[in-house]
Amino acid sequence: MESVPPPAGSQVSRVPAQRTPPEELAPPTVAPAPQRPRRRVRTVLAVVAGVLAAMCLGGGVVGYLVYDRATTPDRSSPVVVVDSYLRAFLVDQNDVRATLFACEGSADLDQLRLLRSDLQAREERFETTMLVSWEELQAAVNGNSAEVRVDLVFAAHVDGVRQTDRQSWSFGLQLSDDWRICSAGRKD
Question: What is the DSSP string of 82-132?
Fold first, then answer.
């Protein structure tokens, strides 16, 4: 292609056009990289962490309440206390559990301790197991005190023969925060 001279009277100079060297050109405008929604991610993580913390705390509280309810002995009535005490003291022979149903420090339960010692001696002497049960728990409540009468039944097989014995007992209970056994004695 041939260069055409500019028309006469034109203001175009005949000087060749000058270009800015490429190193002096401003860098091309680049659109900024899209921002990652960091605040949204942080918010979601904070909410999830808060929910997990609340669930753990709530689970801990529920677990404690369930454990407490399962391990706290029922001392709501005189009959329940005597039944639980007899099971702990005579059947399971668990003195620690039995003390949960007895008056602190002032319990007169010596006759019942002698009964248990006698039953253990009979088991050794006759090489048998004494089975203990009880029947006819009857409570008489008078304000903050109560008396529970019960028939204790002892059974064993000696030389192939089933033998039983029945004894009437009376338990004295007191109510403070809950019912506790303060005395026990045989009634003839």
Answer: HHHHHIIIIIS--HHHHHTTB-TTT-B-HHHHHHHHHHHHHHHHHTS--EE
d(CA 150, CA 187): 10
Q: Which helix (H) or strand (E) holds 21?
A: none
Q: Find where tokens 């918010």 sit.
A: 43
Q: How far is residue 67's CA from residue 69's CA, in Å, rounded to a whole number?
A: 5
Q: Which residues contact 125 (CB under 8 A, 6 or more apart)?
A: none
The 145-158 sheet, strands edge to edge: 131-142, 145-158, 161-175, 179-187
Instruction: Tell the burial category of 150 from Cβ atoms under 10 Å away from its Cβ (0-12, 13-18, 19+).
Output: buried
Residue ranges in the chain modelled with pLDDT below 50: none
3-class DSSP state for residue 10?
A: coil
Q: What pLDDT, on a 0 to 100 scale, did the predictor assign at position 40?
A: 82
Q: Model's pTM, two decimal places?
A: 0.64
Cα(41)–Cα(50) distance, integer angstroms: 14
